Amino acid sequence: VRKTGGRNVYRQLIVQGFNTNIDHTVNFATIPEDNTVNRIMMEVHYYDPYEFALNEENDNTNQWGTHATDLSKTAGWGDERHVDNQFLKMRENFYDKGVGVILGEYGVISRLQIAEHEPYRLYWNEYITQSAIDNKLVPFYWDNGYTNDHSFGLFNRTTASEAYPELIKAITQAY
Q1: Is 154 left (phi over 0), alpha (psi -120 to 50) or beta?
Q2: What does the pLDDT look like over 42-95, one tens digit per residue?
Q3: How far is residue 48's CA from residue 143's CA, in Å, rounded to a whole number?
Q4: pLDDT of residue 106
Q5: What's the mean pLDDT when you consider all of the chain?
Q6: For residue 111, which of 95, 104, 151, 152 sits 20 to 30 Å off, Cα-Cα?
Q7: DSSP code, position 3
Q8: Strand runs labelled E in 7-130
Q9: Contact status, residue 34 vs residue 40, Cβ threshold 8 Å
Q10: CB-hemisphere CA count at 13 Å for 31?
Q11: pLDDT in tens, 116-157
């Protein structure tokens, strides 16, 4: 890429980890040699636990983390400790070695028909954002443009209004 000329000589280059999966990235990624210093980054995504974050077929998994009140409604894995351990792997294997890390996508689908889900969705997003920042990852929430059930959208694109102001606050209050 650097040899193609123009501004590519000094652009930031982003390398996606295999399947954007943290474990695969840590275990198999090789950072290419780069003559431009401090201009390469690794990207991963985060949707753990799948049952809570992405699985549209199972609305029974609608609680997450140490705040869960009914363990039968959790995935049984992927709690706060798991998050911190995953992000620490990225920090130690990339950031601490001079390679910046982007959390290029993360989020939890909405489950509008389950009233108790939203507080856990808020907490998950707040926790993920803060843990990413604490571990030197640059987080980018996945907004897929839709605000209906099983979606990730934050904004109503028709009215240009916030569809989920509390979720936006949960994400942006991290520092």
Answers
A1: alpha
A2: 999 999 999 999 999 989 999 999 999 999 999 999 999 999 999 999 999 999
A3: 17
A4: 98
A5: 96
A6: 104
A7: G
A8: 13-16, 40-46, 100-106
A9: yes
A10: 23
A11: 999 999 999 999 999 999 999 999 999 999 999 999 999 999
122-137 burial code (b ≥16 CB/10 A, e <16): bbbbbbbbbbbeebeb
Query: In this structure, are residues 21 and 54 in contact, taking their beta carbons and an 8 Å threshold?
Result: no
**Residue 65 backbone zone (phi > 0: left; psi -120 to 50: alpha; other: beta):** left
Task: Please give the Cα distance from 123 to 27 (Å, whole number).
Answer: 29
- What length does the chain have? 175
Residue 171 has pLDDT above 80, yes or no: yes
Helix 117-134 to helix 80-93 angle, to the nearest 10 degrees? 30
- Tokens standing for 59? 């609305």
Phi first, then psi: what are they for 80, rounded to 5°?
-55, -40
Given this model, what pLDDT does residue 175 score?
Answer: 75
Six-digit token string for 86: 């995953």
* C-alpha 58 chain-centroid distance: 21
